[in-house]
What does this fold into?
Amino acid sequence: MPTATDPLSQTFAALADPTRRAILARLTEGAATVKELSEPFAMSGPAVSKHLRVLERAGLITRGRKAQWRPCELEATPLREVTEWAEHYRRFWDESYERLDEYLQHLQTKEEHDDSKHHR
Amino acid sequence: MPTATDPLSQTFAALADPTRRAILARLTEGAATVKELSEPFAMSGPAVSKHLRVLERAGLITRGRKAQWRPCELEATPLREVTEWAEHYRRFWDESYERLDEYLQHLQTKEEHDDSKHHR
It folds into this structure.
């Protein structure tokens, strides 16, 4: 299937990788250069740069214009779109939790009932 | 880069496609068969089935066990994980909005100031 290029699809595709999510987490502490990002991930500069390009295309980071350093900065606005999209489904995950809750209560009531029978 | 297989990456990869997100949106109205899902999307059954397999692997839908119909149902729990993950970045997108707000206020003050000069 071809890669979708609408903004939200690009954001989701960029987030579908644990290293890229770890890079974003690192950038919450402040801007960082490619070198600073390569070290904790034990990755080569070019491998990190590849991930950064995906993040940059998705608008999740911006890069400084100083040719040599080009520090990366987090750009969280697309993540706001992600939350807004997912929020439409909140009542559905709440429902699954309610069902689980009801089931657990049912088990507990049953247990109490069984207990009282055993103590008779 | 290889496809990551951790649950959150699988969820994000499954969401990185507008048709798959439209299928999830359709399923908020209730369970649907492959046939019912193919019609609004003007897609062949096999093309829809391919998308459904991606959604099923990511745990975003479950499929009934009746061999012939196998209706699909929304399973929203992974979307809860998505929101929880994105929430860690809320203060960063709030910050960008604050900066925009400050800038707009600055423009307005400037405008008022310019106006009062013109009216002198």
About this structure: The longest helix of chain B spans residues 90-119. DSSP finds six helices and two strands in chain B. The helical segments of chain B are 7-15, 18-27, 34-41, 45-57, 77-87, 90-119. The beta strands of chain B are 61-63, 72-74.
